[in-house]
Amino acid sequence: MYWTRGHIIGRGSSATVYAATSSQSGEVYAVKSVKLSKSEPLQREGRILSSLSSPYVVGYKGCDITKENNLFMYNLLMECVPGGTLSQEIRRKGGRLDESRIGFYTSQILKGLDYLHSNGFVHCDIKGANVLVSENGAKIGDMGCAKRVNLVANDLDHAAEPIGGTPAFMAPEVARGEEQGFPADIWSLGCTVIEMATGGSLWPGLTDPVSVLYHVGFSGEGPEIPNWLSGEAKDFLGKCLRRDPKERWTASHLLKHKFLRELELISNGKEIQESYSNSPTSILDQGIWNSCSLGESGVQDSPEKRIQRLELCSGNASWTFDENWVTIRCNNNENIEVEAESCSGSVSDSIIVDNLTELRSCGVAEESWVNLLGRGNSGRFVGDEAISMWFMTQFLTHYS
Ligand SMILES: Nc1ncnc2c1ncn2[C@@H]1O[C@H](COP(=O)(O)OP(=O)(O)OP(=O)(O)O)[C@@H](O)[C@H]1O
């Protein structure tokens, strides 16, 4: 397939997403690109997406390898969902959504989950930042953490698939590193409903992902359910946020819950769609394209200097919904990669050090590692190449 790369429309912790135009049809796609040498997780995501087809999951359009500026890039082409993420939509609407809109998006995310689960996939990272919205509603995106469940045994192949996701949205059994099956997505959906209702932190007062993990896993508590929600909505959340995964309702069961059924009868989707299409902040607006320019900084400094710069960039840990992110990854060889990125485009850096001893010898206080991890909405734990549970253990040991 021939296509032309356009503007950046989003950045995640592992990849950059651009608009792309098909040379033949002129159709606009979203293309997620990474250096070929680091593309194994994206290739895996592509393989999963290519096996799926649902109006509630972002559509697969193909993949290829390009050579640009002497770099080989792996590209995953997807359907372009023009409204950005659900988290961005929440901010556009002033920090929280009204209940009918919450029900509208929840029902579509659930239909996507029902589809994934009945095809044997656990998404493993449901949250507002991984749901894409358009005038037609919501679609589940970012299948980068997804894993297959053995439907016959109704169990995970633990050896093959590490636990992944975003700490604040993780189910208790996931935070404890025990299991990550279909019910884990349902807990994360409950957290996403609360995100839609509050726009704020699910765990106020907990400012770094390690303390969130510890609290979720061992405190016996769930996130606070906003008081202003109706009884039906609270009941729905209660079914999603049961601490025992066996007691959580399934996606197909939740689709029949009175919270969604009643809303569907009242709004029939129309009012919500009209309201959405009036939004002036679609990512396809030219103004947004024009304002989006991201610089790449050089990487000539020594690892020491670059780690120190990252430490300065990271500031205080804050578990908020800002778009800045800093990620620390550890691969199987225990090389540690530290990256910093600013959505405004002013910082872009990445360094690799061999082990924790080297990170220590660079003079970065261990507290700052937590800060580095805690910044932004993607202080997250994902597959092999990303922050491993091993690395989390280091933090837990340090933290406790
Ligand atoms: N199909 C799409 N259509 C429109 N925008 C998209 C699409 N896919 C991704 N984006 C944008 O790109 C951003 C990054 O995408 P995505 O979350 O898939 O990347 P990632 O590197 O896997 O993220 P992370 O690992 O941090 O969760 C999204 O937050 C969204 O703004």
UniProtKB/TrEMBL annotation:
PROSITE patterns: PROTEIN_KINASE_ATP (PS00107), PROTEIN_KINASE_DOM (PS50011), PROTEIN_KINASE_ST (PS00108). Its EC number is 2.7.11.25. GO terms for biological process: abscisic acid-activated signaling pathway; response to osmotic stress. InterPro entries: Kinase-like_dom_sf, Plant_MAPKKK, Prot_kinase_dom, Protein_kinase_ATP_BS, Ser/Thr_kinase_AS. Residues 3-260 form the Protein kinase domain. It is found in: Nucleus. It comes from the Eukaryota. Its main location: nucleus. One of its GO terms (cellular component) is nucleus. The keyword Magnesium does not apply. Keywords: Abscisic acid signaling pathway, ATP-binding, Kinase, Nucleotide-binding, Nucleus, Phosphoprotein, Serine/threonine-protein kinase, Transferase. The keyword Nucleus applies. GO terms for molecular function: ATP binding; MAP kinase kinase kinase activity; protein kinase binding. It catalyses: L-threonyl-[protein] + ATP = O-phospho-L-threonyl-[protein] + ADP + H(+); L-seryl-[protein] + ATP = O-phospho-L-seryl-[protein] + ADP + H(+). ATP binds at residue 32. SMART domains: S_TKc. PANTHER family: CCR4-NOT TRANSCRIPTIONAL COMPLEX SUBUNIT CAF120-RELATED, MITOGEN-ACTIVATED PROTEIN KINASE KINASE KINASE 19. Belongs to the protein kinase superfamily. This is mitogen-activated protein kinase kinase kinase. It comes from Dillenia turbinata. The lineage of its organism: Eukaryota, Viridiplantae, Streptophyta, Embryophyta, Tracheophyta.
